[in-house]
Amino acid sequence: MDEQKKKLTLLIEAGVDSLDVVITKEEILKQDISAPLALLSALLDNELFALYFREKVNLSFNGFDDLGKNMWEIPEVRKYVYKLDNEFPYWFYFLSKGGNGLYVIYQCHMIPFLSEEDDFDFNMPRLQENVANKWMPALNEICELADMSEEESHEMCMGVYKYIINRGTE
User: Fold this and answer.
1) Helix locations, 17-149, DSSP H
2) Beta bridge partner(s), residue 23
3) Residue 130: how many CB atoms within 10 A of its CB?
4) Distance from C-alpha of 44 to C-alpha of 50, rounded to nearest angstrom
5) How much is the mean pLDDT over the chain?
6) Measuring CA to CA, which residue among 83, 135, 139 is closest to residue 108?
């Protein structure tokens, strides 16, 4: 059993409430996704991991707090998120709706600094494309691994939409 699988098994045995994946400024500046990707990919290794960590993963980015910007406004963070998302698109299933990680992932795929009207016109198609071509197929794949129904998968997707809408109004 590799190191990440051992770590996940120990966390389950300890009854932890969440899995915190912290991405450092150094990893972002080097565009090194290897450590978080290894841990996140281990979640896909078996049904137990997938079931236990459903909506329990918290994703955070550390080291840019002093800039006074949102994470998705930082070009290096955006580039890092694209790179990580291309390897691990299972956010709808695993990420907690209690943190900001999912919102950062979402916002990194949107065009920043648009007017409200342009935001809808330009970003809604981007959101729909990512959902249809990447995030929903990934959600369906993991729901199949976890033996979930289409209805449960649809409910998870609707939960993501509500989360994004609510984050946008905070």
Assistant:
1) 25-30, 34-42, 47-52, 75-87, 91-94, 101-108, 116-118, 124-130, 136-145
2) 61
3) 17
4) 6
5) 90
6) 83
- What DSSP string runs through 112-151? SS--HHHIIIIIHHHHHHHIIIIIHHHHHHHHHHTT--HH
Instruction: Quickly state the pLDDT bin for 18 (edges 50, 70, 90).
Output: very high
- Residues in Cβ contact with 130 at an 8 Å cutoff, skipping those fewer than 6 apart: 109
pTM of the entire structure? 0.90
- The owner of tokens 């929903």 is 136
Partner residues linked to 21 by β-bridges: 59
Q: Is 21 helix (H, G, I), strand (E, B) or coil?
A: strand
- Name the helix (H) or strand (E) containing 19: strand 19-23
Phi/psi at 86 (nearest 5 deg)?
Answer: -65, -25
